[in-house]
Amino acid sequence: MDKQAIQRLLRRYEDAYNRKDTDAISKLVPNSKLGKDPFKYTESYHVVLEKVSIDVSGDRATVTCERQITAVSKDRGPATRTEQKLDTNIRLRRGGADWVIESVK
């Protein structure tokens, strides 16, 4: 049950970034420091979490995954496409009935 709830949270995390929805990202990751308008010069931003491994221990959980980010900038001149694959650790805690992302590194 916990792993399914965490998988749903991770899908909401991906979706929030893919929509460039800073309000949703801030709710999912309360400690995020996105700044005023992090997507100002970004035409598109796409996040996919792959190779996901979830380890639950009581009210804490750790997700180890590969975070793939594809971004297309719209800052002056032709659009620039950037792709990254990052080994990522996501730390979560249970907040009541829900899980909350504490950090993404």
Topology:
Blueprint: H1 2-18, H2 22-28, E1 42-57, E2 60-73, E3 80-95, E4 98-104
Antiparallel strand pairs: 1-2, 2-3, 3-4
Helix pairs in contact: 1-2
- How big a fraction of the residues is strand? over 45%
Q: How far apart are the termini?
A: 25 Å
CATH fold label: Nuclear Transport Factor 2, Chain: A
Radius of gyration: 15 Å
Enumerate the spans where pLDDT stays under 50 for 5 or more consecutive residues.
none
How many strand units? Answer: 4
CATH class: Alpha Beta
Q: What structural class do helix, strand and pairing data support?
A: alpha+beta
- Count the domains: 1
Structure in words:
With 105 residues, this protein is α+β, with helices and mostly antiparallel strands. It has one domain: Nuclear Transport Factor 2, Chain: A (Roll), CATH 3.10.450. The chain is built from two helices and four strands; from the N terminus they run ααββββ. It has helices spanning 2-18, 22-28; strands at 42-57, 60-73, 80-95, 98-104. The chain has a four-stranded antiparallel beta sheet, covered by helices on one side. Strand 1 and strand 2 (60-73) form a beta hairpin. Helix 1 packs antiparallel against helix 2. The chain is elongated, with a radius of gyration of 15 Å. The mean pLDDT is 93.
